[in-house]
Amino acid sequence: MSRAKLALWFIKSFGLELTELKARERQTGIVHSLSVDNTCIPADGTKGFDSLSSHDQKTVEQVLFLLDKFCVGDSFYHELTMIIDGLPKSYLVKQRRGQLNNISNVVPTPGKADGAQISFTDMLKSHVDEFIKLHDEVDWSKENVQVKISGDGAQMTRNSSFILLSFSLLQNQDDVMSASGNHTFAIVKGSESYETLQDSFGMIFQEINNLIQVGEITINNSRLNLEFFLEGDYKFLLIMMGMKAATSNFACVWCKIHKDNRWKMDKDLTHYNSIPIKRTLQEIINMAQKKDTQD
């Protein structure tokens, strides 16, 4: 038995309970107060995050959110808890992160580039279920759930870039343009190119295509119709369509006008949306499957 345990046993034997311990540094005179909260220790002996009260658990989760949001390391936070009283212990934050990671089925993306992905279908079901519960006044048997698939490349440092895939529900007008309304389900570290998308996101795209082909999803024994949209900057759209850069000769996603003729204004808009100028879906599919596209 350690001296600390022996001292606590001695106090308890006289019917006393330790609630606070104060220590004073001899050289500086600084007083350190240590609070002992015995209420957070349940009768079943559970320790760690699960033994905390709901308020303390929420505090730990808020700290974890801020650490991940601003990329603060565990070592820094541990040192911070050593000099500032009242912060949740670092081991509680690590424990909660591990619990959240265990319930999130994150798997590496295929291909050579480093990346991670989660099940798009499971994530979609979760957010659609939450959304329709908040909007139960809508007859969802007659309405399509509109899902927007977004992609974008992000240059993090001079030598590293990432590609992110996310989705949002277009009917969620309050949050559709905010970070809380867009849900990332795949990320890969690599250049924004057709080869990277094909190698790293092939499984994700196949999963999305299966949902597009079926056109519905089942949640709580209820079938909901799905309608998909693709969104991204022009570079991402060109890559998705199997086309070259915006400076190429035929860089319009919707028509086959040459770049030297874009300035001409004598044609009506319907001219570019009619055969043979407009691009058909089959032409885009065929072009995307070719090894080398036209300029």
TrEMBL record:
<protein>
    <submittedName>
        <fullName>Uncharacterized protein</fullName>
    </submittedName>
</protein>
